[in-house]
Amino acid sequence: MTDRTVRMGIIGLGAQGGYYAGFLSRGRVPNVQLAAICDTDESKREATEGFGVPFFTDYHDMLASGQVDAVVTTIPHYLHPEVGIGALDAGLHVLVEKPIGVYTTQARALLDHAAQTSDRTTAVMFNQRTNPLYIDLRNLIQSGELGKLRHTSWIITTWWRPQGYYDQSAWRATWGGEGGGVLVNQAPHQLDLWQWLCGVPKSVFAKLAFGFKRDIAVEDEVTALVDFGDGATGTFTTCTHDLAGTDRLEILFDAGKIVVDDSKTVTITKLSAPEQELSAGMNMDDVRRLFTGEGDLSQYTTVTTRTYDSPWSDQHPAVMQNFAANILDAEPLVAPVDDGIHGVRLANAIHLSGWVGEEVSITDFDEQRYLSELNKRIADEGQFPLREEG
Fold first, then answer.
1. Separation of alpha carbons 90 and 85, rounded Å
2. What is the distance between the alpha carbons of residues 339 and 179, in angstroms, rounded to a whole number?
3. What is the mean pLDDT of residues 290-295?
4. Are 122 and 337 in contact (CB under 8 A)?
5. Is the pTM here over 0.90, yes or no?
6. What is the average pLDDT value for the chain, to the nearest integer?
7. Half-sphere exposure of 106 toward its Cβ, with a 13 Å CA cutoff?
8. Is the dihedral of CA 246, 252, 257, 258 positive or negative?
9. CATH number belonging to the domain at 6-126+313-335, selected among 1.10.3120.10, 3.40.50.10160, 3.30.70.2190, 3.40.50.720
10. pLDDT digits (tens, 9 = 90+) for 228-256
11. What are residue 237's phi and psi, to 5 degrees?
């Protein structure tokens, strides 16, 4: 590494790895240089020749090559902790793709290792945290202006995938190969953002359908009810079989409400006072006038609407630029790796609740019970090895 350049290695040259190689080679990320590519498929060597960087078929060889200062892991989910730990042991910085693992014990192994190697930067690719829309909402919520959380719901069913998508490879949409369905593949960004905005839930009860409208073993339909504590609740609905799709986030607070449509248009309603104060101060004539349309709701509310333009193509380079800035200048990370376990644990808890038909604690999550239930399903598939704790 020079004083101002981070040499980046890409481990895994699938669709995501290829996308990263493309924008890095075009100089889209200041202070980051594409330095090497690794993939176990030797046939991809020829496709990388245009990048003019070394190609490896074993990531251990890349880590020991001296050619890279940092790596990004664009590989199957189960491998993220193993490769991340290996890179840290080799003295490298690590940017882990989401999710940081499939189950919490392996995710924690990565986090523990990152804590022991704190002189290296370890981050997670939560690219949607760079979206100005969600940055503004988080700042507003954390200001306390809207008061305490009451309820939130996110319907995110824009993840339509045809059967052919699942038929591309034997590992996809399997418990042993991918570790789950929509919760681990499509929806981790929303699971992260939901908790980033509203806080980490304390428990969840969920209803899942496995292979509901697709010929797969894992979940393609999810409805989860979470408890945030202090009476606040939330619902999360997602699936991969809704061709029309809906993306709507609502967050209700004591003194206002946020509604986000299509991750673009935000409507913020601020109350002139906390709702309970307004309720206590109204007589029944005031209420009648509101219900009949004679009253003016604007005396109690201020409504603003804004549509954001956040090109998707800017988000991944922005996370990489922030990652490099942390290495070079100690700039705070957009998504430190420690944040990655929240989404893994929530997805695990939703799975477990759906499997056993019970409310599942997140505060005191039973990792061993989850892993045991996961391994039952891996054993039933008969294609993949059972999973160990770390």
1. 9
2. 20
3. 85
4. yes
5. yes
6. 96
7. 21
8. negative
9. 3.40.50.720
10. 999 999 999 999 999 999 999 999 999 99
11. -125, 130
